[in-house]
Amino acid sequence: MPRPLGELEDSVMTRVWKWNRPVTVREVLEDLQQERSIAYTTVMTVLDNLHQKGWVRREAEGRAYRYEAVSTRAAYAAALMNEAWSQSDNPAAALVAFFGMMSAEQREALSDAMRIVAPAAQVPVSQVPDSQVPESQVPVSQAPENPGAAESEAER
Known about the structure:
It is a single chain. This protein has helices at 7-19, 25-32, 40-52, 73-86, 91-101, 104-117, and strands at residues 56-61, 64-69. Mean pLDDT is 81; it is low at 128-156. It contains 6 helices and 2 strands; from the N terminus they run αααββααα. It has a two-stranded antiparallel ribbon with strand order 1-2. By secondary structure, the chain is mainly alpha-helical.
């Protein structure tokens, strides 16, 4: 599981992910300088650290490097969610609580994702053992009308 990125690492990776191409320290620096005062050597160190941690790969280009993301922001977010979920002593209850925190748009995205990933693996709530999801933790307003019919199309 990847450790969460620090604030500056996240700012740098946001650009690398958004641009979706090999980038130089100078490009990242110039974009970051629109928001904050930051030194070239700081950005260079952050990208080097990200390389050592396996977040970016780099290729020499003259005396500099071009950095490229190893995986997507979506994969990073999924790994963080998976790690948090796996830490729970009651994963079903953790999911119910998480779903209760979701906006309508997030629930729709979840529904879309489930249609893509596992249409045959969906289990109606009526078939989930009561011991796994305490009724007191299922917000009535958040309960899906048709839990077996999740459908999806895309990742952001």
